Amino acid sequence: MNAPQPEFQRFQFAFARHVRDPRGTARPAGVPARRMDLYNELLFNNIESSLNTCFPVSRDMLGARRWPRLVRAFFRDWRCLTPHYREIPREFVRYLSEAAPAANLPPWLAELAHYEWAELAVDIMETPEPPPCDAEGDLLDRRPVFAPALMNLAYAWPVHRIGPSHRPRKPVPAHLLVFRRRDDSVGFMELNPVSARLVVLLQEYGITGREAALRIADELAHPDCDIVTAGAEVTLEAMRQSGAIYGTST
User: Fold this and answer.
1) N vs C: which end of the chain shows fewer Cβ within 10 Å?
2) Pick the CATH number of 133-249 from 3.90.930, 1.10.10, 3.60.20, 3.40.50
3) Model confidence pLDDT, tens digit, residues 58-92
4) Measured between alpha carbons, how far apart are the two ends of the chain, in Å?
């Protein structure tokens, strides 16, 4: 038989339940209404402010009425797996991946929010120092060195194009690279399935650009390896110019 819960813990749970859901849960006994209302507003506003900053497009797409209701539902219903404040946006993304179908939200919202969160994730990602590299090295005959903070993302919806003037009705796959440059700014690059695969091969196997291109040619059963290799060289150079690739191994 479980021991009875101490009084102070019962109060803490009652307090937390009311903070999460002021309209649906009674205020704890002995707490003045004005003080409780102030505390409720302070906590909710902190959460909403954090989400507003990280998800400006999602907020604009839902509008001034639906967005606060969604934030309130997240605050009330979701059980975060981390105590860190900066991880709240990630928890919101997790919440959307489960809540969107049941809450009658746009089918692309969870992916849009993930894309917006990726910018923050790359910005604060803790990474080791990149290895020494040759900034002008041959990207085909040497191993490209990618930015340590990088995400190679694939979505069912064109999340990078969603905005007030574009609300997609049908899925259109999108491949996007999000990375942190040497100057710590965050960059974005649209890929296609082949260039996304190129990044995967280079990162997973540590091979040269040419070796990765030949693997892709083999996977595609392409009749002309030189065409695939030339395309890979153009893509890799574009990544270097954008800051996703720092150079080549020395």
Assistant:
1) N
2) 3.90.930
3) 999 999 999 999 999 999 999 888 878 899 999 99
4) 66
